[in-house]
Write a structure and sequence with these properties.
Chain lengths: ~325, ~325
């Protein structure tokens, strides 16, 4: 009984990465990476620049051979059975590099010739999917970055893959483009595709992914549901009060509120820039906000703003590595 | 899984759409008229001097060369070379054949002969040096190698395409040169006799094997040799293109090798082992016309073997590196 259960579970695993390590020169770029990606889920791969995200992705598509460990796609070893494994993968590694001297359509024809069972109709289908009918016969050199990104995705979808690998898919897109891209990825996953997305932005992963693996310095620190991982960490609350001195004194007296003296160390620059000069950053449970506001107002202190702030990626790391320094 | 033909089609489309081949044709269309004009002026000049009598002109050439043999200032190497030239010119004179009969075919033969070690290789490099390195420079190599096709098939399709275009370049050089020079010198001359089979031993020419062949036959043999040299150069440039990431670096490496070859040819007579370098073996056509080889001990078979070994080694290196390498950039 248990055996059948396990094999059923395995059927849904599209990508499995087991203890993959990579040494370049004398340095272990990837020290130990293990995770599974299931059918129909959007899996985030989160880590700061230089953590080994792109190196890992390159190993997933056989651009780099791992020093040890096994990567399987739909049961086929990517580094041994390339022809079989790679036909289940559509990918964009870093930027969508296509031939700029060809038209979008010619590019798709080019890649269609490299895989079995992709005909004219299929090309037209993916063009419709990424909504590029208008410009598909123009030279790629005239495309905007967003259009190249879409052409890259069209190219990745050509072979009807089971796994779509996207490396920082929202990089360089404007806010509207980012939103469209998210909706598009969600739609693909709803159709049963497994999507693997890398990013260095926690917010991006929170908005898009079902599960996430967090990587730092070549090691996977945690794999799990995105919200669970985020909620394990205390939140920050920013207070705007006047007079500032008095407010600070009140907050300091609370036993369950911790004043953060150097907010620049724990918060994003963009948040610090937006919160004004006389803001107090505290670390506390958000349930206490209501009673504290009442207390402050009672004492004649004006409260002009209270903001909840999610921890940054760096914060998540600090917590996970227990103070180990992030480079 | 997928066969090679669609891959070769891909590569061919890319070369054509990149307009590389048109640039090559354009270069030919600009340069050949210039050389034709230069040849026309020099023909006019000697016609004025010798009243159109080629025997007089050839005799004068022989006398000039013989005179220089007496001079102490002329190095021994050159003397040897000139002695051989004199013997050959005398042979043409004795058999009443004009070695420089002005017509489109002779011009084409001479032009091809002079282009084999530098000009044609340069045209080939316009395609060969770019064919792999450009995919790396632009990053498209990532798209190419993440498709369900084995890496050796991708590389082989590029090599096949390169061989096709190399052949096409040699053919176009011939056709364009003949078409343009024929306008000036006339299109006749395929059946005039040309002597071949000069065996050079020391400073003497062994005439026993010399025989006349119609010029078309000579050109056919010459073209075969030029094609072989071109393939070798193309394959070597191909290897450099696999090894080096930037197209510019790849062209510079090959150019340096070729230019070093033409410099060595002029000064390496004393350094015997230089004959194993590919770049001093490119003038295969000289063996046909009987021009002495730059280094003792070189002959047609030797050069063919040296070039073949270099080409085979280059193919092995290209495939070994390309199929194993991590794509990191």
């Amino acid at each position: 009984m248990r055996i059948t259960e396990q094999s059923e579970r395995k059927d849904n695993v599209v990508l499995s990465v087991e203890h993959v390590k990579k040494k370049i020169g004398r340095k272990w770029i990837i020290q130990d990476v293990t995770f599974d990606v299931q059918e129909g889920e959007i899996f985030g791969f989160l880590g700061p620049n230089g953590a080994g995200k792109t190196t890992t992705i390159r190993m997933l598509v056989d651009l780099i051979k791992p020093t040890s460990g096994v990567i399987k796609v739909c049961g086929f070893n990517v580094n041994r059975d390339q022809e079989k494994a790679l036909q289940y993968i559509g990918s964009i590694v870093e930027n969508p590099e296509v031939y700029t001297y060809l038209t979008g359509w010619e590019n798709l024809e080019h890649f269609a010739r490299m895989q079995p069972g992709v005909d004219r109709n299929r090309i037209q289908e993916v063009v419709d999917t990424v909504r590029m009918q208008q410009r598909i016969h123009d030279k790629v050199s005239t495309y905007s970055l967003g259009m190249r990104q879409r052409l890259g995705i069209a190219q990745a979808l050509l072979g009807r893959p089971k796994l779509l690998i996207l490396d920082e898919p929202t990089n360089g897109l404007d806010p509207k483009g980012i939103k469209e891209m998210r909706e598009f990825i969600r739609r693909l996953a709803d159709e049963g595709l497994a999507v693997f997305v890398s990013s260095h932005l926690l917010s991006e992963i929170q908005l898009l992914c079902d599960r996430v693996a967090i990587i730092s310095r070549g090691k996977v620190l945690a794999v799990g549901k995105v919200n669970e991982l985020v909620q394990q960490n205390a939140k920050y609350v920013v207070w705007n009060v006047a007079p500032w001195e008095k407010g600070r004194a009140v907050l300091e007296k609370q036993s369950d509120v911790e004043i953060v003296n150097h907010p620049e160390l724990v918060l994003d620059d963009s948040i610090i820039a937006g919160m004004g000069e006389h803001a107090l950053v505290t670390r506390m449970n958000e349930d206490r906000i209501g009673s504290l506001v009442t207390q402050l107002v009672h004492l004649g202190i004006e409260v002009s703003g209270v903001h909840n702030i999610n921890p940054t990626l760096e914060q998540l790391f600090l917590k996970m590595t227990e103070g180990e320094i992030i480079e | 899984m997928s066969s090679l033909i669609p891959l070769v089609k891909n590569e061919t489309i890319k070369i054509i759409k990149k307009k590389r081949f048109y640039v090559i044709l354009l270069i030919l269309l600009v340069l050949v008229p210039i050389f034709t004009y230069a040849q026309m002026r020099s023909a006019e000049h000697s016609r004025e001097k010798f009243n159109g009598d080629w025997r007089l002109e050839t005799q004068q050439q022989i006398t000039d060369n013989e005179n220089s043999l007496g001079s102490d200032r002329v190095p021994d190497e050159w003397k040897k070379f000139r002695k051989i030239i004199v013997q050959q010119l005398q042979y043409y004179l004795d058999h009443d054949v004009n070695p420089k009969e002005p017509n489109g075919v002779t011009f084409t033969r001479e032009f091809m002969n002079n282009s084999v070690s530098l000009f044609i290789p340069l045209l080939i490099m316009a395609i060969a040096s770019d064919i792999v390195s450009s995919e790396r420079t632009t990053g498209t190599i990532k798209m190419l190698l993440t498709r369900p096709v084995k890496r050796w098939k991708v590389l082989l399709s590029k090599l096949i395409t390169l061989i096709m275009f190399t052949s096409l370049i040699v053919l176009s050089t011939f056709v364009i040169t003949y078409a343009i020079s024929g306008l000036v010198f006339g299109y006749k001359g395929f059946d005039i006799p040309v002597f071949t089979g000069f065996q050079i031993s020391g400073s003497d020419v062994d005439m026993s094997a010399v025989h006349a062949v119609p010029q078309w036959e000579y050109i056919l043999m010459q073209s075969g040799l030029i094609w072989f040299v071109s393939l070798t150069v193309a394959i070597l440039a191909f290897m450099v293109s696999v090894l080096v990431r930037s197209t510019a670096a790849s062209i510079v490496v090959m150019m340096a090798a070729l230019i070093a070859g033409s410099i060595l040819t002029n000064m390496a007579a004393a350094w015997n082992s230089a004959k194993y370098l590919f770049m001093v073996n490119l003038q295969l056509t000289d063996y046909l016309s009987g021009t002495p080889a730059p280094i003792e001990g070189m002959n047609l078979t030797f050069s063919l073997i040296v070039l073949s070994i270099w080409a085979i080694a280059a193919i092995i290196v290209s495939f070994a590196v390309f199929t194993k390498r991590d794509i990191l950039n």
